Amino acid sequence: NPGNSGGPLLDIKGELIGINTAIYGKAQGIGFAIPVDRARRVMKDLVSYGEVRHAWIGLVVQDLTPELAQHFGVRRGVVVAQVDPKSPAEDAGIARGDAITKVDGRDVASREEFEQRIEDHAEGDRITLTLRRDGRDEEVGLAAATFPAARADELAWQFLGVAAAGAEDGLVVSRVRSGSPAARIGVQRGDRLLGLGGTPLRSIAELRRKMIDLRGARSVLLSVGRGPYQYNVNVPLVRG
C-alpha cells in the first residue's frame, strides 16, 4: 500500500473537496484532509509569491474561560488580549477586552479556530467579526492585510527576546532581553542562531519570514550554536 497522502479527496459526485494528509493508525476509516479552499489559497500564494502569505488583522486573542463566558453572557468565543497598533483591527475600532463570537457569521469556540478562520482569508478579503459589547452583538467589518515585513524584527525581540545580525556563516545573536524566554534557557550574545521550528536560518530575511509564520504559535524549537555544539530547546513564545 503506497498510501494516498497528497492525493485528492472526492465526494460522492466525484468533485474535489480536499487533499488527503494522514490517517489515524489506531482506528479504521478515520482520515484527515486539507479543505480544498485552503489548498487553493496556498497554491495561489506559492505560484504568485513563492511562499504562503497569511492574512493579518492585528489581533491576539485568548480562549474564553467559564468566568469570562459568564461575564459576557455567551457560551463560546474568544477575548481580545491585544490589538496591534496601525492594524486593520485598530482601524476598525476593536479594543482589548472585546469578546468575539463569530467570524463571517460562523461561531468560533477557541483561539486556534479563530486564527485558522482568519488565515483562510487572503490579503484584501473582507472579514466580518461579531463582537459582544455591553450585552449586545455588534458586527465589525475590516479588510485582511499581510503582516508588515519591517515589523518582523520586533516579533523576535517580543516573543523570544533576541535580536540577530547577519554573519558570514549565518546569524549571530546580537542582543538578549533580560528575563526573556531566550535568556531563561541561557542564550548569550555571540551565539549562532541556527534554526526555528526545525527550519534552518541563514539570513535576516529567513528569520523575518519564520517569525511571521510563528505569530500564532505558543512555543517553538530553537536551535542555537555555541562553539562546536548545537543546542535544541523548545521555548515558549511570550509577549515582552
CATH hierarchy: architecture of the largest domain: Roll
What is the helix tally? 7
Global geometry: globular
State the oligomer. Answer: single chain
Q: Under the CATH scheme, which class of the largest domain?
A: Mainly Beta
- Please provide the ordered H/E string of secondary-structure elements: EEEHEEHEHEEHEEEHEEHEEHEE
Task: Describe the structure in brief.
With 240 residues, the protein is an alpha+beta fold. Helices cover 24% and strands 38% of the residues.
Molecular structure report:
- With 240 residues, this protein is an alpha+beta fold.
- It has 3 domains: 8-49, no CATH class; 55-146, Pdz3 Domain; 149-236, PDZ domain (Pdz3 Domain, Roll), CATH 2.30.42.10.
- The chain is 24% helix and 38% strand.
- The protein has 7 helices and 17 strands.
- The strands form 4 sheets. Strands 5, 6, 7, 8, 9 and 10 form a 6-stranded antiparallel beta sheet that branches. Strands 12, 13, 14, 15, 16 and 17 form a 6-stranded antiparallel beta sheet that branches. It has a 3-stranded antiparallel beta sheet with strand order 1-2-3.
- A hairpin with a 2-residue loop joins strand 12 (162-167) and strand 13 (170-176).
- Helix 5 crosses helix 7 (204-213).
- The chain is globular, with a radius of gyration of 20 Å.
- The N and C termini lie far apart (49 Å).
- The model has no long low-confidence stretch (mean pLDDT 88).
